[in-house]
Amino acid sequence: MERIYLDHAAAMPVDPRVIDAALPYLAGKVGNPSGLYEEGLMAKSAIEEARGRVADLINAEDTQSIVFTGGATESNNIAVRGTALRNARTGKKVVTSAIEHISVLNPAKDLQKSGFTYATVPVDPWGVVDCEALREAVTPDTTVTSVMYANNEIGTVEPIREIGEIVHERGKYLHVDATDAGGRIPIDVQRDGIDLLTLSGNQLGGPEGTGALYIRPGVRSQPVVLGGGQERGLRSGTEDLFGIVGMGEAARIAAADMPGERRRLAAIRDRLIEGILTLEEAALTGHPTDRLPHHASFRFSRIEGESIQLGMDFFGVAVATGSACTSRTLEASHVLLAIGLAHAEAHGSMIATLGRSNTTEQVPAVLHAARETVKRLRAITPL
Amino acid sequence: MAEQQIGYSKKVMEHFMNPHNVGVIENADGYGKVGNPVCGDIMEIFITVKDDRIEDIRFRTFGCGSAIATSSMVTDMAKGKTLDEAMAITRDDVATELEGLPPRKMHCSNLAADALHEAIRDYRSRQGE
Ligand code: FES
């Protein structure tokens, strides 16, 4: 049976072109980028080239504003925790939206132990940040405000430029987690007034365990991991040459392919949405139009998401869910609760995220799988 | 140390894909309904009793794969048993019959055993009246 993989937001297959570019650095090319011998200089220049490509993807004003990290989680930790601690003298408040990734929420919560206050800003039923509430939450002592570019569970794209303006009226820095938006839609840190921006290497099509943090020149932050002071002191540890070169190549490819790939995936997405919404008691989650081109998310009433995932898998289709039954804590997704769903409604979540391997021709098979799965589970439900 | 089980056993998947004894019994002799306080799922079991034995049993479940498989399994296990025997079925028995459950999913098998016991208690209290 042909497998149809629709969980790209969780893990992306590495682009073969990325492997071609990066493999020599895993299989032979060595050199500590701090060394002044030939191998070291070669490594250093490979890293700087990768840095330039990541900078270009988000229109950063200076290549040196890109710091390579071990993934989006680490970037988010430096951005929230590192920046808040570094600027504690000017204020001890952080603000995030209610639908941020856990790697933003947890460092923000944890800062409370160090005497910070932390406020969350609600979203509307489509997952769009409430800008009035944001305006109230951001006070002159707010050093870090963190709002994601687009949400991983519901696909909604936030009005980042407007959010940037609001944050800068009284607050200090805007951090944007662009893990899911990076490489999918055009991002321009200068246009959008972004001070710090998180990118995931894997979500661009690069190796797992790679990431970057953009830090606007002049913004001060501090590391969360201490050591030899690599990456401008913000991310110690000998550079992962293979990973960095891979992420750089992935950024280059993402930028080059974005216009075509964006349109292609959005067309598949729209067919998927149209088809799923013909099923009984199915609803779209997230914004109907302001959403990521590769993202389709739904909820089905009276059935549960892990069962949906298992049922779809039987038909060869891999999807994600935000159901409590699949979460480590057995709690309902904070994102689905934040858009106003009741616990039982959040249960029936199904998330499909597209990638390069997906085609329009696969849509009928996915719809068939969904129709059968939903029908079967509805026959068992007591609700 | 025992190897950490990855995913569900084949048995669980069999019962999940083709659950046994699904449905409702009109005019059941006993009915049990329990909610899962951990993640919010719901399970109900209907029984008919003849000569102190469970003659027929049906279930309906709103929950994860493990919840569906354990309810299917518990109905299989209880069918034909005396009420006392059925009352003695524990969540561990259900999990064992299913060739194990991931640790995080043990609480779902609670639900199945609880719903069964609830249905038997309901039957007994109706008899007592
Ligand atoms: S019923 Fe929710 S985890 Fe099993």
From TrEMBL, chain A:
Origin superkingdom: Archaea
Keywords: Iron, Iron-sulfur, Metal-binding, Pyridoxal phosphate, Transferase
Positions of the Aminotransferase class V domain: 4-365
Cofactor(s) it depends on: pyridoxal 5'-phosphate
InterPro entries assigned to the protein according to its UniProt record, in alphabetical order: Aminotrans_V_dom, Cysteine_dSase, PyrdxlP-dep_Trfase, PyrdxlP-dep_Trfase_major, PyrdxlP-dep_Trfase_small
SUPFAM superfamilies tied to this protein: PLP-dependent transferases
Family: Belongs to the class-V pyridoxal-phosphate-dependent aminotransferase family. NifS/IscS subfamily.
Protein name, as recorded: Cysteine desulfurase
UniProtKB/TrEMBL annotation, chain B:
CDD domains membership: IscU_like
Pfam short name (any one): NifU_N
Coiled-coil features, chain-numbered ranges: none
Residues in NIF system FeS cluster assembly NifU N-terminal domain copies: 8-127
NCBIfam families noted in UniProt: NifU_clost
Annotated protein name in UniProt: Fe-S cluster assembly scaffold protein NifU
Gene behind the chain: nifU
